[in-house]
Amino acid sequence: MSRSRLLYSLVLVLLVVIPFMASHAQKAMGKKVPVATEPEGDKETPPAAESKPLAPWQTLSGDGEPTTIRAVRFGASSRSPMSIVKRGNLAITEGDMVVGSYEHVMNAISKESVIRDPYLKWPKVDGKVVVPYKVHPSLPRQAQAALQQAIAEFNAKTCVRLIPQTREKDFVTVFFGQGCYSYVGNIHNGEQELSLGQGCEFKGTAVHELMHALGFYHEQSRPDRDQFITINFQNIGRGMESQFDVCRDCTTQDIPYEYASIMHYGAQAFTNNGRDTMVPKQRGARIAEPYDKPGLTALDVKKLHKLYQC
Ligand SMILES: [Zn+2]
């Protein structure tokens, strides 16, 4: 082989090998890039300053327009439409409920498979509903205090016992993520995350997110909600109308609709002009954000006890 021919072959080989190696290096590096579900602020100290309360829907910064999927909700027997927004690698519905990883949800839809097991409750031990939890080191002090107040409320008023996780397989990790959100129910997947991010460090918010983790949806998506509130669609941000979809197949548990429920969003949820998006049909009634509420109402406790048969 002539010298120039050898040189030519060498160049050809390098031309093929270098991009190949580069793409592999990128993939390997890509694996190390933290995904959005992973706690943020691991290394940085989270802000300690007083933060302005944010409602869960205000922390929603979805990537693009919502997509409507059909999913089986906790406690429901059939699939109903659910509007999801992509946030990082999570699929979120109604501002603060995690449906699953976006990729998983999208794959499940294309395969027409069911998104979730509809009956995922926490186990009962000696008549108490046991929810093991872990506090991630990323959680700022203020959020930790809010979480502890919420836990004290559950432990005092209900049959739910939030206990520090030791050997239990399924548990909730509370961390400082992007916004306030939780999975609905026990997803039976080992560790499941509950985020109390910036603006979420309030007792009411912590109680609200823990109620999601216990298996509850929003009060304003109950099948009977149109008898109690008027939705002003003209005040809702574009593309966000579907966040007010009613869960037709969800049960009301034969418990009255309640504006004061910790699971009811505030009157301005998803507003795009500062005006109310939800108007109570009952005169003089006020609908506050979860962070503005003292905690569980008597009816919230009743719902919980009915679901878990306490
Ligand atoms: Zn919520």
UniProtKB/TrEMBL annotation:
It holds the Pfam family Astacin. Residues 29-65 are annotated as: Disordered. The active site is at E209. Residues 113-310 form the Peptidase M12A domain. It comes from the Bacteria. Keywords: Hydrolase, Metal-binding, Metalloprotease, Protease, Zinc. The keyword NADP does not apply. Zn(2+) binds at H208, H212, H218. Its cofactor is Zn(2+). Binds 1 zinc ion per subunit. This is M12 family metallopeptidase.
